[in-house]
Amino acid sequence: MPPAPPSGARQIWRRLRGRPAALTGGVVIVLLVLIAAGAPLLAAIEGQDTTSYHPGLVDSASGGVPLGHFGGISGSHWLGVEPGTGRDLFARLVYGARVSLGVAIGATILQVLIGVAFGLAAGLGSRWVDSLLSRVTDVFVVMPALILAIALLAVVPGSFPRPVLLTLVLGFLAWGGFAKIVRAQVLTQKSLDYVAASRLAGSSPWRTARRELLPALVAPVLTYAAITLPTNIVSEAGLSFLGIGVTPPTPSWGQMLSSATTWYQADSSYVLLPAVLLFVTVLAFTVFADGIRTALDPRAASRLRVGTRAGRRGAGTADSAATPADAASGIPGPADPRGGGAA
């Protein structure tokens, strides 16, 4: 008796294991999330916090440059202190990870919820409903979201929690891409036999969407969310850098970069630490998203390897790995060379 084909999740994991860069990105993401979640514990282990000033650790005669080497690194301050104030950098960086990742993840979740709702309603609605919602979506797609975010953040009272405000602004202004992807998938899927059978059996549009369409939307929505999340991280950092995002004393990587611009010559470590963390975070999410995309769709070559020998070899391996087991697991197989590729 032949062995049972691997499940969809096992097949995706097997493909993902063949991409060391994506696995490395996933490990980095997990570590960053653990650091953000355990920020209070890590700061307590070091024995510092984000708001305590240490004027004795900076040289007032030189304008507040930290005393000692590499920004004042010591056993009590693992990554040194902030110029001018003497606040502990390690504590501010780990708490800044909580703010930056929290805003990006919250905004991405909000974008997914709004985009999926609009996309489903447009794809399953009547022609005039589809036309109306599509025009609304087009407005949000072409709208300069960053400029509107700057305007909204500038007029909202400062008493409103800035991380929550950033999450809401980014979430409500940048969901158009999700809506377009979901609408296109729904229009494709609802013409298939199993969806038509569900509707002919008397299922309501919501029941059809929940039982038949939503499972087919997991892969494209998950892939686009993984790509959108680093964009939200950069947006939060940019808004905080401009001084209209997270404001002191709440730490954020973007806000720390903004205040570090006047110290890059006197204390380069104060600039490098948040900049490197921001770069590594965005790179990890981007590489992991690319690996997820190619694992979910083995027909697609990695975008990070297009035009290289490794990319051509990876594409050939992915195509040869798409066997009948892939079809049995519900994962798309390679395109038919005669032009009848998998839907």
UniProtKB/TrEMBL annotation:
InterPro entries: BP-dependent_transpt_permease, MetI-like, MetI-like_sf, OppC_N
Membrane-protein topology: Multi-pass membrane protein
SUPFAM superfamilies xref list: MetI-like (SSF161098)
Positions of transmembrane segments: 21-45, 99-124, 136-158, 164-182, 213-233, 270-289
Localisation per UniProt entry: Cell membrane
Domain of life: Bacteria
The ABC transmembrane type-1 domain, residue ranges: 97-289
Recorded family membership: Belongs to the binding-protein-dependent transport system permease family.
Descriptive protein name: ABC transporter permease
Species name: Actinacidiphila acidipaludis
